[in-house]
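Below is a complete specimen:
___
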Amino acid sequence: MHQRFVLRTLLSVGTAGIALIAAQAAAQVSVPTEENPPPAAAQAIAEAQDSGAPPPPSEDIVVTGSRIARPDYVANSPIVSVGSTAIENTGRVTVESTLTQLPQFAGSFGAGNTGSTSTGLNGGQAYASLRGLGSKRTLLLLDGRRIQPSNPDGSVDLNIIPEALIENIEVITGGASTTYGSDATAGVVNFRLKRRFNGLELAGQTGVSDYGDGKSYRITATMGSTFADDRGSAVLSVDYTNRERAVQDKRDYYVFRSSTPGLSTIPQGTVLFGANLPTLAAVNNVFVGQYGTRPLTGNAAGRYTGQIGFNTDQSLFSTAGVPVLNFRDPQSDEAYIVNSGTNSQQINFGYNGGSLQADLDRWSVFGKVDYDVTDDVKAFIQATYTSYTSLGITNPTLASNVYGLNVPVTNPFISAAFRSILASRPTPAGDFTFYKAFNILGPRYQSYDYEVWQITAGLSGKLGLGDWTWDVYGSTSQAKFSNEQTGGASASALRNLLYSPTGGTEYCEGGFNPFGNLTPSQDCIDYISRRTLNTNELKQRTVEGNLQGALFSLPAGEVRLAVGADYRYNSYGFNPDSALNQADGTSDVLGYSVLRPAGGSVDTKEVYAEMLVPLLRDLPLIKQLEVNLGYRFSDYNSVGGVHAYKVDANWQVFDPLRLRGGYNRAIRAPSVGELFAPVSTGSVGIGTATATTTNGDPCDVRSSYRQGANGTQVRALCLAQGVPTSIIDSYQLGTAQVFALTGGNPDLQEETADTYSAGAVLQSPFGGMARNMSLSVDFYKIKISDAVGPLSIAQAFQFCFNSGGNNPSFDPNNYYCSLITRNGASGVPLNPTQPLLNLGTYNVQGVDIQFDWRFGLDSLGIGGDSGTIALNTAVSYLDKFEIQALPGAQAYDYAGSIGVGVETTAGTAHPRWKAITSLSYSLGQASIGFRWRFIDSMVNSAKVVTPASTTRGVEAYNVFDLNARFDVDDNTQFRMGVTNLFNREPPQVGDTEGNYDAQNYDVIGRYFFIGATKKF
């Protein structure tokens, strides 16, 4: 009851804020101005603080998104500013959560990535994805300068940001390539650091979930001082962070036994007969004659179409497309029976060792020295170093699909009953396909070890010509990554054991009996198990020089110009383990494809110019009107010369109202990884086939494709792709995943973005309690053409079989169908391809709204120092999120849906409404805050392409946080809080029980944290 009352109250508050915005018809996130100082209004997450306040108006400032220094801290592009207090109040020890919770960001790859079965190059990392367009289109800067990428695709890992020194974070939506070059097509995130630091500051924070896991610890020490009669200053910060796993099995909303068919590769092992089917009579001679079960049924030719499994006592059971009969082992999370259709069951595999939050062990060091060489020349040198490890844990090796094993009929462990069934096949001496979960090897572990460093040095000064200034800097950096996998199974070792006439006793003690959930000797486990190690190295070199100052004066003010040039070099080198790069062109580790050494480099030379032109001022309804023009030419050794340009306008109508907007042409050249990354495989979910959804393999007899109006044409297409005729009418995939191939493409061209923005900022003209009130509304539109990305294999399956009208003739030569090949004996997809291409178009548009209000209770007549109330609401409305997979193909609007993104690491949730609202009360040295996080309900993305799909979406999500802080004195502060105060469960995504989106929703549950800061 209390929770419902709180929810209604906050909904009322939020609605009132939105109503006020609509009534005023104006503005987006208001950047602090001279007329209205920053306090709470400058914060997007909305805790009252002023650490992000702009410098005094007399000091020229370079605003994020521009190269021109100016005295008024006015930005023509919408800017969100987040202060250090807001970061602390998330209760997390990394900055990832702060950005993900902002309405402008989509939940992206990060702490929720807890384990992978692929040999990817991003394990343990955390990204920022503005507008859901991906981390590689979101440029991250540190004090306006580029940061060393941690991924070959150009993405910067948020884990390497020196968080102890963050003063505030500024976020710009829309293209900023004119200002910063490639990668800024979705926008820019600029981490501004504290400029001067005196003394010693120690800070610590710890937290734990309501379930006793997910513990986190963070300790930082920062010291700084001036020297040489205040001509120089130095700062050194050391940060240690430890974050432990949060696990699924402690939360009752995680389900490890699905009620629907899923993965059917189990520890007992099962046999797929493919086109070489045994007779029904032979099967029933065993099941009816020996086990006393009811008879099994088969196809019209009298053949058995299901699978055969093996109990631990070596007896047989039936499964997959037939009733499960004679399953004698105790059902467990690893093997349990589910219904899969009329008179049809299968034994599912489940894994209960999954994590919700990846662990992290990180050391970070930051140092900087500034020195005034002369009164007109300043120098600095800055160094960052981060070393961290993260461990991903996932299910045991699964020998299935393309990694299924072949077993000869000569294997000595084949029982007499099973041998009689094998003998009834049309080719009785033929090998058979064997699926097995190798739980005997334990879970698969992937450790990710990173070392990232960057050294930057530069000079700046005055030219001696008016107010013209110059600056130049150089930077060198490197990211080294080691990825170790353990728990893998050797294909060659298993082949030796399975084909040995002795059962493998010559290879390991006791040999290896694969039939049943048996544990072999440790000697055999060691013989099968493999450890692999891949290494990756990225380097970046940057040199940049800039000039800026006033050209001349017009009646409306000074015309200011900034010009500059830079050179940038990025390289990449990858070396796989020899077991994944065998001389015969194969991989020896089940579940991991062939990896080849890869590498390359990209050189970039750029020049730019930016001009600020004041047009009118001090006229009726035009206090100030100015335009900002910009142009950049970039020459890449990969794609050649490209152009970026912009036109922005700022119109101060009168003191309370400012209008702004503009157009930007931005470009993003393909990164060194997108050009040269090795081809690798990864497990990709396609869902389980059902009659009412478009999930799963369309050739599966349970699918809506086979059972729909075009079933005959679908059947013919499946036959053309290679599903054997003998099993076409009984074919079931038996898994919800395929192993898709991805890799670099040296023929990629640049992608182009046209971005538009228009908005208004309204500052209250009133006094009293309405004095510190601001309101902003901004429209944005980002259209990216020739977007570089992988073509989703899940959609390739759907589009090949005419979802959305993409293959109306069911042509096997259709482009989407060309990405799919099948095993000619079993019909199972063989490493379908997810090519990296210049795709069609991404078109995203919406509206950002922010309302900020801060007032003292004394303005209500309460009297005395009665404290201050701050209310802040940041809201984003998504109007369009269109994805066109290929030029000329149909575009689909995924706004208001979940399940499809421009890429999996960019976030797949696209709610119409997303908001974060804070209400805080401060009195003297104490404050308490209450925060409401809202994500709108969404339909499943399958309904976008196929409106008749019944795949479930997600309900609206409301989460509440509580935080408090107390300053004992100017040097001592305590803070504490609870996130997800009412322990709200995340909504289930899709039809699979226990499937949640950890990128966007709080899957950990209620979380407590406490921290302290002490200055000396």
Q: What stands out?
A: The two ends are 47 Å apart (CA to CA). Residues 1-59 have pLDDT under 50 and may be disordered.
